[in-house]
Amino acid sequence: MNVKLLIVLALLLYAVPLVLWIVLKLRKKQTAAEEESVMNWMSRQPGSRKENPALNRFYQRSYVRSAQVPLFRGQVKRIRQRLAVVSPYDELTLRKETMKITYAVLLIVVGLILALALLGRSLPVVLLGMIGCLVLNGMLIDVFVHRVENRLLRDFRDFLEDNRHQFQATRMTDEAIYEAAQLADHDMKLHGERIHEVLTSKDPDRSLAAYYEVAPNRYLKVFTGIARMIMEYGDKTTAKGSLYLHAIGKFVQDINFDLLRRSRLSYQLNSLTLIALAPILLSFPLQRWAEKYFPVMGEFYEGRIGSAFKLMLYAVAVGAYVLIRKLAETEESRYTPKSGGIRWEKKLYHFRFVRFVVDRFVPQKHTKTHYRLSRLIKESNSPLMIEWLTLRRLLYALLTAVFVTGMFVSAHINQVNRIWNAPTYVKGGLMIGRIDGAERKEAELRTELDGRIMREIDTDRKGWEDTVRNLVRESSGTAVNEIRQNETAARIVEKLGRADSEYLRWWELLIAFAAGFGAYFVPLGVMMFQRRIRGMDMQNEVDQFRMLISILSQFDRMSVQVILEWMERFAIIFKPALQRCLLDYDGGAAGAMAVLKNEAPFPPFVRMVERLENALERISIQEAFDDLEMEQEYYREQKKETMDRLIESKSNWGRDIGFAPVMFMLGAYIIVPFLYVSFMQMKDLISQLGQI
């Protein structure tokens, strides 16, 4: 392990904690009063969970102090914002959960950097690991937040079961919800009490609209709306009993399907993320093993081709990891555009020079390219405008071209360094077998001799080859015969020629330009992939619409517009199309429904919209959807089949993508190097036979 790497590890392990300790000590007096108030507040909270007081105090103090450190302030704030959307935590619980996730992410990231440092044993590897950890950081936050969302869904399912029993005893919706909330876990208890406040407020409709804005998932939104309708119009006895209890049963069944889908997807795909990233860690010990038992292979790994294969392996592994994470996503936010804050693309686009350059690449309006880009942005549910997307594509292209050019320059510098400092073995040796100490020491002495002579040579002068031969004779003396002197001189001349030939060539710039051109289309490829995944989940959402309509159709005075409003509230994938339909509904219901079918041409969804069209004038809503109850068993089996097909499709995609880096590693680090070394050995053998 070299000195530079030791310096980096020392900075990581000692200097950073030392700086943080000094900063925290300086701010201790400022935060002491706030810590004391937090501890007093914690002791007064009746609904807080019973946990280790010392651990809870540690989380609270960590939150207060980390908010004062610039290194962690943004990270803590980002995690807090994500958790605040998922669950209505009280302030103390929100701080504690935020610090739990912060420490978990920090431990994983630091552990990964140390693993790369120990396995790679070089400064570039550590820097590469740090860059990768910046990308991994956001993904780890998503993973931990998803766990909170899944836990909330399970708690909501148990809350509904308790609510059923309480309603059967009291026949009062608000009282049943309040009693069930007292039996629920801490997170669901907060939601239950919030729903009870909505139902019992002076202006329930306004409170309900406010709750719709902060509800973490659509099940809570729709359940609260159904409970509000039951409170206003009263429960109704249907052929299957109480309408409210029947709706609760539907919710429990749908949540169970959703939890089962999430758990099966997690089981199928989570291990593939490790398989996708494993080649990055395995490449370092594999390379050291090959160089130890097949010494000639070191020339391949340190050469331009080997460096290019390394970069390609890293790119394939990270790309596969990102795509598998996209496949494994199950939370609702994956189809919800991120509207919070100001996007960096928007900030950058405001500069006059940047806007001038980007506008030259933006396709003109009313052209086919502009229409296709607009449609792709809508279908992938991206929050970007065409100008912002073009700016992102140009930056990807520019950074990729600069990075590839830098890697070519680095490869040339590394190759020159190997020519000067790498041990010089005698050509014609075997390609297999370990190098013993005596042979390695002899090779290092050759390198020292070559370097001493090479430093005295100026290749710009004429006749420098003769100067090399004269210096070799002077340094060798009479102890070495003329044949060995000629071999040494030829070796040094070859080294100097190879060192002079290491410069940036035109075709390398062409490759960098081609890589940048390919990166220009990467954002489009990611959006197409997201559109493909989105299409897989459409049938699942249509099945959930059927569940919702089967409940709403039982209410009296139900209209098509009200059903569309509920569908828009419950929708994720079809939400933009439903929103536009509702905006145009007052201008003509038939025209708005036709536009809805046009913007969402998914056949099962279109058939559902056609039933709603029939309910506009011809028949009632209950008659239009009467087969939903009659064919309930069929739709249940159909939904199960759809879920199995969706999971199987995503699993197949995940296996193909997850094992791609492994296959590439086998080819780039084993098969191709062996072929390269075999050809080089054969070339040397033929050369020796020719001399004989």
Tags for this entry?
mainly alpha, two-stranded antiparallel sheet, 2 strands, Type II secretion system protein GspF domain-containing protein, transmembrane
N-to-C span:
43 Å
* Count of DSSP-assigned helices: 31
Strand tally: 2
Low-confidence stretches: 10-50, 331-341
**Average residue-wise pLDDT:** 77
Structural class category? mainly alpha
Shape designation: elongated
Q: What is the quaternary state of this protein? A: single chain
Using only C-alpha atoms, the radius of gyration works out to 33 Å
User: Largest sheet at a glance?
Assistant: 2 strands, antiparallel
Helix content: over 70%
Indicate the proportion of strand residues: under 5%
Keywords: Membrane, Transmembrane, Transmembrane helix
Transmembrane segments: 6-24, 101-119, 125-145, 269-287, 307-324, 394-413, 506-529, 657-679
Protein name: Type II secretion system protein GspF domain-containing protein
What's the structural blueprint in terms of helices and strands?
Layout: H1 3-26, H2 28-44, H3 53-66, H4 70-86, H5 91-120, H6 123-170, H7 173-183, H8 186-200, H9 204-214, H10 218-233, E1 237-238, E2 241-242, H11 243-293, H12 297-302, H13 304-328, H14 344-349, H15 352-361, H16 368-379, H17 386-421, H18 437-454, H19 464-476, H20 482-500, H21 506-520, H22 522-536, H23 538-552, H24 560-570, H25 575-585, H26 589-599, H27 603-617, H28 621-624, H29 627-630, H30 632-658, H31 660-691
Helix pairs in contact: 2-3, 3-5, 4-5, 4-6, 5-6, 5-11, 6-7, 6-11, 7-8, 8-9, 9-10, 10-11, 11-13, 11-30, 11-31, 13-30, 13-31, 15-17, 17-20, 17-21, 19-20, 23-24, 24-25, 25-26, 26-27
